[in-house]
Amino acid sequence: MKKIRQTSELEELEKDFSSLFDDEDKAREQALKLSREITRFSSQAIKNIHHLEFKQAKDFLVSAEKSLKNAKNILVDFPEIRYAGFIHNAEKELIEGLIFYTLIMEDKIYIPDFNEFDYISYLHGLSEAMGELRRYILDRIRKNEVNNLEYYLSLMDDVYYFLTSFDYPDALTRGLRRSVDVLRSLIEKTRSEITLVLQHKSLEERLKCQ
C-alpha cells in the first residue's frame, strides 16, 4: 500500500499554528503584566484612602483603569485568555478600590458603566469593599469618631441583602456565595463592635449629666 506523504502540508500547519501560539503567548504576557499593575495600583489606592490621602488614591485608581482598558484591548481577539481568571481578579481589585473611594468621598455606592466593567467582577468587588469599609469603621472607633457608624453599618446590610439575591451556581458567579458568607460574618462582628461603642458613649453622656 502506497503511503501518502504530507510533509509540506504539515510544515505549513506547523508555521501557522506556531504563529497563532506566539501571538497568544505575547498577548497573555502583556495582559499578565498589566493585571499585576492593576492589582498593585488598586492596593495602593486603598492604602491611601485609609491614610486619608485622597488625591494619591485617585491617581492610582485612574492609572489602574487605564491598565485595565489596555489589557482588555490586547485580549480582544483572545477570549480564552481574557476569561482565564487573572483579568477578573485584577478588575475585582480595581472595582473594590473605586467603590471604597466613592463611599468615603461621595457617600454613595459606585456603579460603573457595565460596557467597560464585568458585572460579576463588580459583585465580587462590592462584597470585598465592605471589608475595607469595616476597617475604616474600626479606625474611626479608635479615634473616637462615632458619627455615621450606624449609617455605614446599614449600608453594609444593604449590600449584603443585595448580593444574597443572586443565588446562582458558583460556575456562573465565580464563587460569589463564599464571598457573601464572609461578608455576613464581618457585618455581625461590626454590628457588635458598633453597639458596644455606642452604648459606652451613651453611658459617658449620662454620667456627664449627673
UniProtKB/TrEMBL annotation:
Gene Ontology molecular function terms on file: sequence-specific DNA binding
InterPro entries for this protein: Translin_fam (IPR002848), Translin_sf (IPR036081)
Lineage top rank: taxon: Bacteria
The name this protein goes by in its record: Translin family protein
